[in-house]
Amino acid sequence: FKQAEKHMKWLIDPLPVNVRVIVSVNVETCPQAWRLWPTLHLDPLNSKDVKSLISAECNSAKVKLTKEQEKKLERHCRSATTCNALYVTLLGKTIACVGNTGNIDEILQQCCQCQDTVSLYRLVLRSIQESLQSDKEKRLLREILCVIGVSHNGVSESELIELYPELTSAVLASLLHSLHKMCLLTYGCGLLKFQHLQAWEMVKLEYMEADENVISAYRQKLVEYFTMQLRVLIFICFSFNSQDRVTWRSADELPWLFQQQGDKQKLHKCLLNLFVSQNLYKRGHFAELLSYWQLVGKDKSSMAAEYFDSLKEYEKSSEGEESMICLADLYETLGRFLKDLGLLSQAVAPLQRSLEIRETALDPDHPRVAQSLHQLAGVYVQWKKFGNAEQLYKQALEISENAYGAEHPRVARELDALATLYQKQNKYEQAEQLRKKSFKIRQKAARQKGSLCGFALLRQRALQLEELTLGKDTPDNARTLNELGVLYYLQNNLETAELFLKRSLEMRERVLGSEHPDCAQSLNNLAALYNEKKHYDKAEELYEKALDIRRRALAPDHPSLAYTVKHLAVLYKKMGKLDKAVPLYELAVEIRQKSFGPKHPSVATALVNLAVLYCQMKKQIEALPLYERALKIYEDSFGHMHPRVGETLKNLAVLSYERGDFEKAAELYKRAMEIKEAETLLIGGKATSRHSSSGDTFSLKSALSPNAFLEHGQR
To answer: Which residues form the signal peptide (predicted)?
Structure first.
């Protein structure tokens, strides 16, 4: 990841229970915040591993190495750059490839001069070049590698043949066989791409000499090719009737190529091709599409206005049913896009227009009309206009029942949407009835497909794990018991979950000793369970034991220690033991400062939590500097108009008012309201809900994370 601290902030906080993120990083470039995660260190290969890998490659080609040659290779593969799996595998393939036809000692000598993977790739490429019979084939090899390298996601075989008419299928097949065999190229989604970053680095050094002008020339070749695929000249105008030619390849490559070339004008025109943007959005490239608009310097409102104007222009030329149906799809895509951006009032107009077109061009009872009704209702729900949403959902339900029958999954979707709507309005009885009806439909549909519904799969997995626990006491079995407890908790079977978590704790204490960090994990999980059951005294005792173990066993800034500190602090606060909560909230601030640095927003949130606690204890003097420091961090991190800045200003205003400083309170409150109004105007009259930073919002059910609450064993 490039600029990980900027673009991957969402990975720092605890993740939802059903999400796992595995990130491969280099020790030198790993962001500081990620270093606290559970980590699997990949050690360099030892001499036995090196010998095994090289032998496997040589045996596959029936090449036999002498003892002296094996020792030479083992001695060579001892440095940090020569003992990694890619280097050794490539080394083995190189020896195996020339072993039957050339002098092994000679190739060994050449390989030993390559001190890293890039230089070894260069040797491989030159050996492939030498095997080619003509200068034409060598030139085509160069062109293929360069054009694949400058593309966004790779290039297909058919695209290569169209790009280079002199390239025959036979020559291409031969070249690709050599390149794939030697780990240079691979296939992904039907596209040829570099198998490893080092291979592309080598091509840049070998063929382009890292010259931006050469790279730019190859990008331009692709720009011209994909522009022709659209059958338009992008630098003049875009034909809005080109929807049949806008493939996912054109939509993926063209905007990205313009971005790489730094051509904002062409990128802007490309984005205003409605079918390019629709293609990107429908395939889930929302963030990528947004980044392109940010590059051309357009904010969300300007972008929405330009799309809407383009659609109106396209509508003027739309004639016939097929064209109108296509137009309705475009309006719907724009509405959904604006809804995702939080521009709720702007999203209504395109979704309403999509509905009108479908009702006219198709039929008022057509399933696509139900789809429009559903999308429009979703905006009204987010806008908290529940009456409008209910009417639209009911219409969509009626159409779906008439079109598909009362037991179709589409009907279940509308029932779920209505149930969620009723739940938001505290109409729990009506919501429960609809959910039961929806569940029966989905259950029946799942049986018809020969599959199990979600809860049955979960139960089956629990039973499989249960069978594993019949063996003797071992750390692995204790971990399995812990996982079983978590699984039963997820099924809301708290009594059974408690049994397994207790068994896990007892086994760990017997096998590992009562002071082992794994015991702290079991204690933490049991405490979270008792907290959920409102057995606060039991939860307090177990959290305190877990904290005591983790304080002695783990580093002061370890995430597991931070989790226990946080949850025990929240529990103390809930129980009214504010004096006991204070040192833990202070410790939480220290841990976050060590983990993320003193100016990170996470530190500001911890400061606000501590300030809220002091205010509850009527210690406004202690709270004031904490709020002020948090405000400074939020302003530096997010800007002066961010909602978190507004929330902190509001807290400071209340504090100033309580201290009798009415003039300052009025000033702070005015600033907070200006931020709120700016946010409201941005999305057309209704601010989206955000996580508050003004205090703890601890709920095991609503924010369940196995790392934060019920912890799985580390694999």
So the answer is: none
As a residue count, the chain comes to: 715
Asked if residue 665 and residue 603 are part of one domain, the reply reads yes
Report the pLDDT averaged over residues 5-15.
Answer: 59
Token representation of residue 270? 């490309």
482 token code pair: 């812990």
**Is 432 inside any structural domain?**
no
In this structure, what are the phi and psi dihedrals at residue 194, rounded to the nearest 5 degrees? -70, 135
Q: What is the CATH number of the domain that holds 185?
A: 1.10.10.10
If one compares 458 and 497, the residue with the highest pLDDT of the two is 497
Integer Cα distance of 414 and 393 in angstroms: 7
- Whole-angstrom distance, CA of residue 541 vs CA of residue 535: 10
Q: Name the 3-class secondary structure at 12.
A: coil
The Cβ of residue 109 has, within 10 Å, a number of other Cβ atoms equal to 11
Express each pLDDT in 129-184 by its tens digit: 988 989 999 999 999 999 999 999 999 999 999 999 999 999 999 999 999 999 99
251 vs 249: CA distance, rounded Å: 5
Regarding whether 294 and 219 lie in a shared domain, the answer is yes
What is the average pLDDT score of the chain?
A: 82
Classify residue 507 as left (phi > 0), alpha (psi -120 to 50) or beta. Answer: alpha
CB 468 within 8 A of CB 698: no
Query: What is the spatial distance between Cα 689 and Cα 616, in angstroms, rounded to a whole number?
Result: 25
DSSP state of 243: G
560 inside domain: no
Least Cα distance to 704 among 548, 534, 531 occurs for: 531
715: three-class secondary structure by DSSP: coil
The residue among 700, 702, 704 whose CA lies nearest residue 533 is 700
- CA 388 – CA 368 distance, rounded (Å): 19
Residues 63 and 94 grouped into a single domain:
yes
Continuous H helices in 362-385: 367-382
- Separation of alpha carbons 141 and 134, rounded Å: 11
Query: What DSSP line would sit under 293-326, residue for residue?
Result: HHHTT--HHHHHHHHHHHHHHHHHT--SHHHHHH
Phi and psi at residue 185, to the nearest 5°: -115, 155
Statement to judge: residues 292 and 223 lie in one domain: yes
Look up tokens 């783990």; give the residue: 554
The separation between the first and the last C-alpha atoms of the chain, rounded to the nearest angstrom, is 24
Structural domain includes residue 340: no
User: Any bridge partners for residue 471, and if so which?
Assistant: none
Yes or no: say if 15 and 712 are a contact pair by the CB < 8 Å rule.
no
Is 369:408 a contact under the CB 8 Å cutoff?
no
User: What's the total number of domains in the chain?
Assistant: 4
State which residues form the domain around 673. Answer: 597-680
Residue indicated by tokens 């807290």: 651
Name the domain boundary from 298, 318, 334. Answer: 298
Q: Is the separation of the CB atoms in 369 and 355 below 8 Å?
A: yes
> Bridge-partner residues for 193, per DSSP?
186
Could you identify the residue written with the tokens 């002020």? 628
Position 701, amino acid: K
Band the pLDDT of 692: cuts 50, 70, 90.
Answer: very low
Q: Find all residues with CB under 8 Å of 298, minimum gap 6, and list them.
A: 268, 306
pLDDT at 458 over 70: no
- Chain segment 512-564, per-residue pLDDT in tens: 999 998 999 899 889 988 988 889 999 999 999 999 998 888 888 776 787 78
